[in-house]
Write the structure tokens for this entry.
Amino acid sequence: MGPARLRSALRFAALLGCVAMPGCLGGREPVPSAPGLLLVTLDTFRQDHLGCAGHPDVRTPHLDRLERRGVQWPDATTAIPLTTPSHATILTGLPPRAHRVLKNRMRLDPAVPTLATVLQEHGWRTGAVVSSKVVLGPDFGLDRGFDSYDVVEPADRPASGEGALTAERAIQWLDGHGGPGSLLWVHFFDAHLPYLPPAPWNALYNRDYRGDLDPSTHAVQDDLRQDPAADPADIRFLAAQYAGEVSFLDLQVGRVLQFVARTHPATVALVTADHGEGLYEHQRYFGHDILLHETAVRVPFLLAGPGLPQRTSRLIPDAARTLDVAPTLLGLAGIEPELPMEGRDLPAEPPREGDALHFVLESHPSRDKSPSIYALRTGAAKVIWAGRRQGREAYDLVADPGETTNLADRELREHEIMLEDLQLDLRTLPPGAALTVDHERGGLDAETREALESLGYVDR
Ligand SMILES: [Zn+2]
């Protein structure tokens, strides 16, 4: 273990409060000079649907096992609940207004370095297996730095069970290229609308549904949103279908993790998501693009591998952000590049005090009538703001984690100050958006429009 890695591991042990525990760092393999890195992003995956996050019903045994081998940051948040911008943040360590990919299908500036370009420059083998051409295809510049960029697309959408193919292709790559000095990024898309888990997962949480809702099109979600007399049984059915996707995905991730454990044990795995999913709790909405509530922005954040501490209590009280993924993985690779990353190398840095937690969230939906929305989180306090005409929301995430009581009407001084801070932040950092590839091409082609419509990303 080199001095930098030893320092990093000791700091991480201190973070976990286990420095004084005999054997806390001893008895494990030393951190290899160049471990393998496995980054898994679970599209549309709610943090509270993990068994290891305490969900009482949904089963995620493989992710729970990963958590038992490593650590979990339960308070982890995305920067933006949109697939292309969020993955740009995950790969660059920059917030959306710094990398300028603010909407789906915008292209990342070729001058911006990414986790993959840095590792590739250091001689690493790099591969990606992603599961959505329409929002993560090679057009958007996130393929830079990867020796291979495999886009898994089912022949027809809506698809069911496509994660099995994604897992298979990930295992193929690992078989040929995995091990020390390699990075594989695997992206699963199954939990995204429409919720169509394959059998038997489609019946796993739907024990008593007698309705006739067809979840195979996005239209059904729109219909439910516009129907004030929507049947609660239909709502429960769709939420149960989503939970079925979660458990199906858990198995597919488990296949990849088991292969790695068997063939390349010196691999560090980081599992997170680009965003969560609203399941009708807010704005009668199934989806994520127009929400900044915790259902849509809180994400799994699990890290495990050789050289990382393990202990009985694996919950890290500090907050993590998807902004921290690239700096963390580069730190584990022992690389300290001169990069303008704003995220933190989590194992190497001490935890922050609760009040020090302060960050901006944003979303820029592509639906024509949906405004951009912003939020500021300071400790447990959160303010959501969608412009002067749209009103605002304010919550205390400790007293009300489900964000059921909007405190904005009480006009608390704390929230007034947060709103002023947020508006000041937006004025001092004006968004300078990148172009979408469709803008560059003069418009959406019919095939792409159809694909986006099926995912609910543009108005029908
Ligand atoms: Zn997504």
